[in-house]
Amino acid sequence: xxxxxxxxxxxxxxxxxxxxxxxxxQREPWDGVRNYQARNMxxxxxxxxxxxxxxxxxxxxxxxxxxxxxxxxxxxDPTQFDENSNYFDPKSSQDKPRWILVDVAxxxxxxRMVSLQEMKEMPELKDMRVLQKGNRLSITPVSKSEFxxxxxxxxWGK
DNA sequence: GCCAACGTTGGC
DNA sequence: GCCAACGTTGGC
Length: 158
Description:
By secondary structure, this protein is α+β, with helices and mostly antiparallel strands. It has one domain (5-149): ph1033 like fold. Helices cover 20% and strands 28% of the residues. It has helices at residues 17-22, 36-45, 116-121, 144-153, and strands spanning 5-10, 27-29, 51-56, 63-70, 75-76, 100-101, 103-115, 139-142. It has a six-stranded mixed sheet with strand order 2-7-4-3-1-8. A hairpin with a 6-residue loop joins strand 3 (51-56) and strand 4. It is globular. The mean pLDDT is 94. The structure holds a DNA duplex.
């Protein structure tokens, strides 16, 4: 399959790209997703090695701060079984897990953040899913040209 | 903190 | 299956 690209949102107060870069293996299960569309993309469409734009949400300013990649096959999100977790789901079971995730690995941090504001001003990104009004999905597909435009704006790969 | 947009729940 | 009520997201 051709290489694919994604945007994944994370609140930096909860889990930032710096947190990812400081993990011992620079990799982390992308847990806590409790939206079926986002789950389905991790479960059904993501492939090992897919490139990910790491987006900081619910902060000031929001925007894309770096690059990660898909680092595992899909598997059940362990937090859904943990009664002490905020992400515990009493309707899920080991037999029939409801929530599926992939691991994400650190690739690099941009020289400079590409803010949401800037993204809205880039003509190459006018059709980008995450910029459409009312979009709240935490995982969205990104085209290769969109990915490249953002990476370049972030000073990546020079 | 506000609130628009959207997803989920549950009564019927 | 409809839809009102409610909860969450996330920019501002």
